[in-house]
Structures are given as structure tokens and as C-alpha cells.
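Need residues for this backbone.
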């Protein structure tokens, strides 16, 4: 008997929540892209919620990275976290 795989729907981050996250940290789209290891265009897709008319979901890895940055963590090697360094241009 074949088992059906049911995808459990987990609420994700909305485009509005993503934009709010970025603005709360005082990041420009370019800065958010650099911190998340993405192209600026992906930030724009996430904030718009679609790409060429098709819905764009913000992946769990990006949502978790957003949380880490919000908590002041810039990187994680599996054992320890690297604190986020505040650059002078970001505090202006």
C-alpha cells in the first residue's frame, strides 16, 4: 500500500514582514542582499511577493538567516556564532 505524502503547511514570512524586517534593521535592499548572501533582485522578489507574475516563497533558510541577523549573529560555524559588526555607514 502506497503512503500519501502530505505536505504540512507552515506559515512563512510574508513580503510585508520581510520588508518590515529589513527596514527595522535599517538596511537598504543591497545591504540585506549582501548579509543574506543573495542578489539584490531576490530581495526585490521577496518584497514584491512574486516573480514574473508567479508567487515567490521566502525559503526557511532565508527566514532563519533573517532571525539570526535580527539577533546580532552574522555567521555560524556549527559550534559558535560570529557577532554582527555594525559598520559606521549603517548607523547614520
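Answer:
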Amino acid at each position: 500500500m502506497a503512503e500519501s505524502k502530505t505536505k504540512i503547511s507552515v506559515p512563512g514570512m510574508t513580503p510585508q514582514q520581510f520588508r518590515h524586517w529589513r527596514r527595522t534593521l535599517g538596511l537598504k535592499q543591497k545591504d540585506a542582499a549582501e548579509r543574506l548572501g543573495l542578489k539584490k533582485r531576490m530581495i526585490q522578489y521577496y518584497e514584491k511577493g512574486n516573480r514574473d507574475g508567479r508567487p515567490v516563497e521566502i525559503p526557511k533558510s532565508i527566514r532563519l538567516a533573517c532571525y539570526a541577523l535580527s539577533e546580532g549573529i552574522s555567521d555560524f560555524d556549527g559550534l559558535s556564532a560570529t557577532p554582527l559588526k555594525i559598520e559606521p555607514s549603517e548607523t547614520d
